[in-house]
């Protein structure tokens, strides 16, 4: 959730005319990349948790 919020904040900064200044553009780019990394980590963690949950329950009924 935080990753998506950071991405939205970065896009809001980039839509402003002031983002044409190099320092503001660079800051918005760093915020966006941080949000992208956090969102990717969240998705990866969710996939891993689902995988381990399925592996623990056994995919085949009656198999042990």
Summarize this structure briefly.
It contains two helices and no strands.
Topology record:
Elements (H helix, E strand, L loop, with lengths): L1 H14 L6 H36 L7
Helix pairs in contact: 1-2
Q: What do you see in this structure?
A:
This protein is mostly helical and 64 residues long. Helices cover 78% and strands 0% of the residues. α1 (2-15) packs antiparallel against α2 (22-57). The longest helix has 36 residues, at 22-57.
Key descriptive features of the protein:
64 residues; mainly alpha; 2 helices; rod-shaped
Number of helices: 2
Structural class: mainly alpha
Overall pLDDT level: 89
Task: Count all strands and give the number.
Answer: 0
User: Which spans have pLDDT < 50 for at least 5 consecutive residues?
Assistant: none
Rg, Cα atoms, Å: 19 Å
């Amino acid at each position: 959730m935080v990753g998506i919020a950071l991405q939205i904040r970065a896009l809001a900064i980039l839509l402003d005319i002031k983002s044409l200044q190099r320092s503001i553009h660079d800051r918005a780019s760093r915020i966006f990349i941080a949000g992208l990394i956090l969102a990717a980590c969240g998705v990866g963690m969710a996939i891993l948790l689902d995988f381990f949950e399925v592996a623990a329950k056994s995919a085949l009924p009656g198999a042990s």
